[in-house]
Each structure stands twice: as structure tokens, then as C-alpha cells.
């Protein structure tokens, strides 16, 4: 295969797929996707734990250009979502431009040729434009716990589920109580002899309005014009109401919290256990979790909730920060991902030779969450400050891809060799976002979440509506970029 391409896309998840499809539709044919795994899907390929599903309605959690009328449930599960993503990629002919099993080991900007030089597991590749679409839910966050490496039993992260281990009759410790644990804990609780849940921080859990989609509804979606769009509009409005609560905590989020409190009282009758499961922060500070069986599973006699973090592992004992211990045969880590310290940031070197991670110094930032000053002709999809807390990653990715596609096609038509967002435009954008986050649920008192970076700043959350995100992020504004033109290229009208 060729070692030079006009556009190289890193990652074959939803954002990489969207970028490749839209660029090709716009006439940019020389695109290649580099994917270290052996198939499409990104996080939906990697996460195969029991109960894995989405928290966004399926009608919204899909490509706008590839609607699916056959979702089996209101909220899709992992196998179904993966099949959908894989199907879209193959139906659009991306197999011919995807190089599976190729890992990017490093990428650096070459000013002499105004392009990118990539070192991969399959040799060197050069590109005019680089799109980093590895995403923030790519690399599991493994806690540095003393003694964990010496644990004699099986240890795995939820994103690397060990399906070879039979949990029947086992004593299992689960460390972490985030979105993944809320889904897999009720599943394994039915199998294990004892489940010890180590919960450093309680999370708010709301009921999930989920059910199988009747065949009649599927038929109507396929045959009645506009029905599917109308249903999507209703679901979008409901999700945006939740989004409005994030941005105006009083009184909206306080009202939603009352629902959470009532649900907790109904699901957990034991006062001592309920006290352990009651958060001490306003709903919305952390990711809102949805489940119809998580809280209920914690009331079962084979479950013990340790309302503490883990201090260390000693032999077969997991020792909590409060001194409590649990003798276990296996440890499952539900400890999330490297969200704000994405590994890809350590691989990409900009105009001054420093990595993206070195530029960010613990606080990721990008103009429109997409372009970083000092990294010409490069774009990040699902980048900093674009997390909505209630909306679909598909909407975010497609908005960014629209801007990226506009930027690349404009550069081609105008004969521009280098596009580098100005430091001024980037700083102004970041300042505006940070100012808008003040007073939102994300920045409430006693709020410690993965939204907050190493320097104490919220570098994850988007402070406005999804509609505003689509409006703002989709536009390429050349005046915000420092542009170098090739004077030998004839500029089109």
C-alpha cells in the first residue's frame, strides 16, 4: 500500500468512520484509516462486559446519514451498536482504505514539506493532513495500587473483559462504581458467591426508561414518512431538557435530584446501605448513571458495599482506605479511562517538536475542541471541552467532521499548504468556554469528577446546548487560522 496519503485518520471508531465517509463524499479520495485493532467500532469493539449498553436513545446514538429503523430496544446494547457501526463502515466502502492491525507509534510535523510523518507498526507513512480520532474512551485507567501486580487471582479492567474466567461461585472485588460498573455489577451479582463493591464516591442513579421496541413500531419507522424523525425529535427534546438542567442547576437539577432520591429510597430499604449510596454533591457534578437494576442488586445478601477507596492489595485481600478487608478470588476494575490524558497526545509532536501532552501540561484545550495552535494541518475529534453529559457522541463527532471537511476542502481549492489555528483564537475560545462553565452543575461545590483535569480545571464539559454545539463547531472560520499558501497553485474561484 502507498506510504503517502493526503489524509491519515487514526482510529476506526465512530469519529474516524464519520471523517473518512464525509471526506470521500466531499471529493477527498486519498484517505487512509489506521486502526490498531482488527475491526471497526472503537470503544464499542473494546467493551464487551456483561450488560454493556448505551445511555443515549438509539435513535439519537447513530449517524445522521445512516438511520437505523431496526433497533431492538430504546437504548441499544453493545453487540447491536457494534454491528451497526461495523455495517455502516463496510456499506460505505471503508474496508478498501482501512489498514487494520497498524498502530501509530508517533507522529511529527515536517515544516519543510508541510506535512506529517508517522511512525507505525507497519512502517513509515506521510500525510498532508492528520486526524486523531482515537477518542477519550480508548485507554483503560489502571490504578496504581500497592500489591495489585502480586495478586494471585485474575485481575482485569471492564474494558478488557476476561471472558475465559467462570465467575460462578467466586468471591469477587469490584473497584470503581462508574458507568461500566453500574451495568456489569447486576449481571455478575447473579453468578458470584460474594461480591465486594469498593465505592470511593457514591453516584446518583436514575431509572432508565428502556424497553424492547415492538415490531409494529419498527414497521412504522420504515414505512411512515417522518415518523422516525418525529420520534427522534421528541427524544432529543427530552435529552436537551436534562442538558438545560446541567446549565441551570437551580431549580431544574435540584428537581431531577429529587427523582434520584426517591428512586434510591424505593430501591434500597436498608437505611445503613442507603446512607452509603447517597452522594453528597448535586446531581450532575459527575456523569449521571441510568439503571433499573444496579441499586437493587446491591441489596442482595451476597453483596457488601465498602464505602471507601482501596488502599492496597495484600495477597488475596483487598484492603480499603477505611481498614475494611475482603478475601477474594478475582478483582475487576471499573476505574474508567484516560479521558483528559489521552495516550495519543503523547504521540503527536507539533511545529516546535513538543508533544500535544507537553503543550497541554495537564489541561487539554483546543479551538472548538478540534484544532490546537502549533499543530498545523491536524485535528482532534472528540477533543477537549465537548462533553455534553446528556447528548450523543455521534452529534459531536459529526459536527467536528463537518468543520474538518470544510477546512481540508477549502485548503485544497485555495492552494493552502498550512492551516494552523492562531493562539489568539484558541485562547479566546477556551476563555469563553471556561467562563460559561461557571455556575453549572459541573462546577458545583464538592465536585470531583473525571471532568476535572490535573490542574483543577474542567477541560471536558461543553457549557451550552447540543444545538449550540452543532451551530458553532460545524463552521470553519479561516480568519481564526494562520494560513500559508502555495503561490504555485492556481486558486479556484
UniProtKB/TrEMBL annotation:
Molecular function per GO: monooxygenase activity
SUPFAM superfamilies to which the protein is assigned, alphabetical: FAD/NAD(P)-binding domain
InterPro entries (alphabetical): FAD-bind_Monooxygenase_sf, FAD/NAD-bd_sf
Domain of life: Bacteria
Gene3D superfamilies: FAD/NAD(P)-binding domain
Keyword annotations from UniProtKB, A to Z: Monooxygenase, Oxidoreductase
Pfam families attached to this UniProt entry: Pyr_redox_3 (PF13738)
Full protein name: Cyclohexanone monooxygenase
Amino acid at each position: 500500500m502507498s506510504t503517502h496519503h493526503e489524509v491519515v485518520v487514526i482510529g476506526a471508531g465512530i469519529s474516524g468512520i464519520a471523517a473518512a465517509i464525509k471526506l470521500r463524499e466531499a471529493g477527498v479520495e486519498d484517505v487512509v484509516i489506521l486502526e490498531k485493532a482488527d475491526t471497526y467500532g472503537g470503544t464499542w469493539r473494546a467493551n464487551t462486559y456483561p450488560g454493556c449498553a448505551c445511555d443515549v436513545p438509539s435513535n439519537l446514538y447513530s449517524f445522521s446519514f445512516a438511520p437505523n429503523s431496526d433497533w431492538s430496544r430504546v437504548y441499544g446494547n453493545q453487540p447491536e451498536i457494534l454491528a451497526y457501526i461495523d455495517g455502516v463502515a463496510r456499506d460505505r466502502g471503508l474496508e478498501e482504505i482501512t489498514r487494520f492491525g497498524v498502530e501509530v507509534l508517533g507522529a511529527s510535523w515536517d515544516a519543510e514539506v508541510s506535512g506529517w510523518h508517522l511512525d507505525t507498526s507497519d512502517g513509515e507513512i506521510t500525510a498532508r493532513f492528520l486526524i486523531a480520532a482515537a477518542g477519550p474512551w480508548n485507554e483503560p485507567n489502571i490504578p496504581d495500587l500497592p500489591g495489585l501486580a502480586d495478586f494471585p487471582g485474575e485481575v482485569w479492567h471492564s474494558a478488557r473483559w476476561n471472558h475465559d474466567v467462570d465467575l460462578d461461585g467466586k468471591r469477587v472485588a469490584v473497584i470503581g462504581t462508574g458507568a461500566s460498573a453500574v451495568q456489569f455489577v447486576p449481571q455478575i451479582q447473579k453468578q458470584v458467591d460474594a461480591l465486594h463493591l469498593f465505592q470511593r464516591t457514591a453516584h446518583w442513579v436514575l431509572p432508565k426508561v428502556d424497553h424492547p421496541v415492538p415490531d409494529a413500531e419498527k414497521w412504522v419507522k420504515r414505512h411512515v414518512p417522518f415518523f422516525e424523525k418525529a420520534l427522534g425529535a421528541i427524544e432529543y427534546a427530552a435529552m436537551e431538557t436534562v442538558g438545560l438542567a446541567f446549565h441551570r442547576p437551580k431549580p431544574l437539577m435540584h428537581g431531577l435530584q429529587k427523582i434520584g432520591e426517591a428512586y434510591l429510597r424505593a430501591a434500597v430499604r436498608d437505611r445503613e446501605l442507603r446512607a452509603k449510596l447517597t452522594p453528597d454533591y448535586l446531581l450532575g457534578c459527575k456523569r449521571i448513571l441510568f439503571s433499573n437494576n444496579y441499586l437493587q442488586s446491591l441489596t442482595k445478601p451476597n453483596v457488601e458495599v465498602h464505602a471507601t477507596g482501596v488502599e492496597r492489595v495484600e495477597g488475596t485481600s483487598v484492603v480499603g482506605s477505611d481498614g475494611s478487608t475482603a478475601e477474594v478470588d478475582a478483582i475487576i476494575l471499573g476505574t474508567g479511562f484516560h479521558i483528559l490524558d489521552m495516550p495519543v497526545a503523547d504521540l503527536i509532536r507539533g511545529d516546535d517538536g513538543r508533544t500535544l501532552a507537553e503543550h497541554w501540561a495537564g489541561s487539554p484545550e483546543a479551538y472548538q475542541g478540534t484544532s490546537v495552535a502549533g499543530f498545523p494541518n491536524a485535528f482532534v475529534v472528540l477533543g477537549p471541552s465537548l462533553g455534553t453529559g446528556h447528548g450523543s457522541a455521534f452529534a459531536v463527532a459529526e459536527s467536528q467532521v463537518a468543520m474538518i471537511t470544510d477546512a481540508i476542502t477549502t485548503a485544497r481549492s485555495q492552494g493552502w499548504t498550512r492551516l494552523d489555528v492562531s493562539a489568539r483564537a484558541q485562547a479566546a475560545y477556551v476563555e469563553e468556554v471556561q467562563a460559561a462553565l461557571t455556575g453549572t452543575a459541573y462546577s458545583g461545590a464538592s465536585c470531583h469528577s473525571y471532568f476535572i483535569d490535573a490542574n483543577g480545571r474542567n477541560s471536558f464539559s461543553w457549557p451550552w446546548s447540543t444545538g449550540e454545539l452543532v451551530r458553532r463547531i460545524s463552521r470553519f472560520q479561516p480568519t481564526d487560522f494562520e494560513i500559508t499558501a502555495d503561490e504555485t497553485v492556481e486558486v479556484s474561484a
